[in-house]
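Fig. S4 source data, part A: sequence.
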Amino acid sequence: MRPTKAYLRTEVGHWGADLMHFSGQRAALLTCIDRKSRFLLTAKLEDKKSKTTINALSVLLHTMPQRHLKTMTLDNGGEFYQHQRLPLRSFFCDPHSPWQRGSIENANGVPRRALPTRRKASDLALLRLSVFTIVISCIYVSDAKC
């Protein structure tokens, strides 16, 4: 059971993470959000393997101050199998219970509207990370609900 402070969103440092999958391609989008501040981190992944996902998530989290790394809530997907390698405690929601990770589900809804899941395989692969980060930042900031 994750801490009450994470559940109530009373302090910064409790994160949620998820992968956005796009049909017909190996690439995926990793999203990670702080439950209180709604600070969103994203990374483009070349594949959905656990090693790739955890490496990218670790890199994202290492950009944050240590005091802002307390817990991480994940779904039960195989991409998070190596969660022990993360620099914070990991919790998993119950199967088929996305409401237990509402922050990340809502955050994923914002770029989904701009990046439909039915894209050609080359579309996501051709998107440079710098351009992608700017697009996601602009969309999220203008459309986030608190």
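Fig. S4 source data, part B ends here. The longest strand covers residues 14-21.
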